[in-house]
Amino acid sequence: MERDSIWITAVVLLGVALSVGAFFLVRQWDRERAELTLSLEAQATASLARAEAEMCNEVVFALGELIGQRENLSRAAFSEIAQPLLRRHPGLRALEWVPVVAQGERLRVEAAAALELERPFEFTQLKLPGALQRADESSHYWPILYVEPLAGNEAALGYDLAHGRTLETLQQARDLGALVWSHPIRLIQETDHQLGYILILPVYRGGRSPETLAQRQAELIGFVQGVLRTGDFLQTSVREALPRMLDMMALDLTPGNPDRVVHFLPAGPGPATVVPTEAEMRAGWHAVHPLTVGNRQLALIFRPTPAGLAAGHSVNPFGALLSGLLLTGGAAMYLRTLLRRTARVEFEVASRTAELTAANQHLSAEMAARLAADREVAQQIQLLRTVVDAIPDSIYIKDLAGRFLLHNAANRRLLGLAPDD
């Protein structure tokens, strides 16, 4: 019994160990499957954002090339061209035309714009935080002359970028002859707390970028600008595959950028009630996808929501554990039954063996007794023969057929028989 208990205990311990191992293994498989799903979702979202950013660049390029070939493009023509572009790419909040206006042309341009808009118009600049005032006199101006759509962007109309926060970016784009993204800024027309980017493309006379720096500075006729609100851009660019289980944070990793965290977009509808830090986004499982657009080095960080984390916690590990324990219990019961049956068989074999041994011993004793009796009979017969042979008279015994059964030596001599006959 002690040996049986050892075997059953060993099977139970082995089964429990394998069941627990299966639990952790299946849980790891579930976690890896969930992480793969989240990774694919994050990759798809980042790819959509990257493609939309490239399309926004293409829109600005196309508009800049058109204006370069038609320097006297009217406000109505600009609107007619910009409107379908904005409808196809809602990630762009606005398209703007910023001409180079010499000091002597300022009044004429302001008067013409006021006549077209049927409202007062002047070049403005920020002299106090949040307060637009008439721009100071300067040798040249870079005002936002056209903007589409006008609704919601009225504050930007007439803003002189030669005195704005993107002046260095404008000069960089002019000198490079290339599309340049500004650093993340709060747009002049912004009423919320979103940061935005300005896509700045220099436009030169004839629509072609001159080869030398001096020529680019001399032949500049203005800038085409695409305006992005980061949150709107991210939400509209991934509208077909908005991550339902992933929070998303956009970072600007460009050296020298003052605002590293650009925007936080929570999973699902509605604005974020609490904006996490970058460290909190990177805590636990997360995915980082670089997003290089123009001269900016952006990155998108994705982390799972509580629902996304719960999706990786299925009942499969507990099913594996329960199945293993049930199999262990079944194996232990089967082994217990088998050991009991074996014990019964062994007991029956031992009983039968003992019975056979006793019977053999009894038969051996009987045979020994019978042999002893036979020897005693033989001795008595021999004694009788000796006594009968010693009698001098003729003695004999015959059966009914007349055959001699016994006769002594005197009778054999009388008959002339040999001693052995």
Question: Can you walk through the features of this model?
Answer:
With about 425 residues, the chain is of the alpha+beta class. About 50% of the residues lie in helices and about 20% in strands. It has 10 helices and 15 strands. The chain has helices at about 1-70, 75-90, 105-115, 165-175, 215-220, 230-235, 280, 305-310, 315-390, 410-415; strands at about 95-100, 100, 125-130, 130-135, 140, 145-150, 180, 195-205, 220-230, 245-250, 260-265, 285-295, 295-305, 395-400, 405. It has a 5-stranded antiparallel β-sheet with strand order 6-1-9-8-7, sandwiched between helices. The longest helix has about 80 residues, at about 315-390.
